[in-house]
Amino acid sequence: MTDSKLTGADLTDCKALETRLILRALSGADNRAFGRLVVMHQGRVRALLRRLCGNSQMADDLAQDVFVVAWQKLPDYQGRGKFGAWLCSIAYHKYLQTYRQRTRERDIHAQYGAWQTLTLATGSPDDRPGQIDLERAMLNLPPAESAAITLNMTLGYSHQEVATMMQMPLGTVKSHIKRGLEKLKCQLSATPEQGSRNPSQEKSA
């Protein structure tokens, strides 16, 4: 069940259960408590990492590392903000660390078809042509823009929550989202002919 389908009472119950599990995990009274927290939040963490990585296996491997780090840093969680947001913050910075270590340029030159409606869907990519194009286009964005859009528009965090997770000023996060969406719209509205044109040919034309 996604957050958007939960009632107010459901959210209250989930928050209360989450708090109990965190306390039991910290106290060592229940060895399975942290595992239950993982089950509650792994979908959200993996959705973020899969959008950033564009590779399910890599994302799943990073997600395991994220929960190891979260377990190690659990005493640092002071209950400020949402626990899921805290996990996503760890996931984002774990991804950045990996991205920087590899220092690899993303070299994806997919042919994009016209797609009139820009839809940022929750969860893993499906087989719809438009959604596949979106995932490819997201891979061409800088990590900060891709993460800000995913956290805000896909996972539903507020601008302020995203700023906290990404450790950036609120205005910077809003700028990342605005610039990223503009780039996505340009990519997704490009015809195959436009996407395949050589810049050097345009200059000589």
Summarize the structure.
With 205 residues, the chain is an all-alpha fold. It contains 10 helices and no strands. Helix 2 crosses helix 4 (83-102), helix 5 crosses helix 8 (170-189) and helix 6 crosses helix 8.
Protein described:
This protein has 205 residues and is mostly helical. The protein is 69% helix and 0% strand. α3 crosses α4 (83-102) and α4 (83-102) packs across α7 (159-166). The longest helix is centred in the N-terminal third of the chain and has 21 residues, at 33-53. The chain is elongated, with a radius of gyration of 19 Å. It starts with 7 loop residues before the first helix and ends with a helix. Mean pLDDT is 78; it is low at 104-117, 119-127 and 193-205.
Low-pLDDT runs:
104-117, 119-127, 193-205
Task: Estimate what percentage of residues fall within beta strands.
Answer: under 5%
- Strand tally: 0
Distance between the termini: 54 Å
Estimated structural class: mainly alpha
Total helical segments: 10
Classify the helix fraction into a percent range. 55-70%
Mean pLDDT score: 78
Layout of secondary structure:
Blueprint: H1 8-27, H2 33-53, H3 56-73, H4 83-102, H5 129-139, H6 143-154, H7 159-166, H8 170-189, H9 192-196, H10 199-204
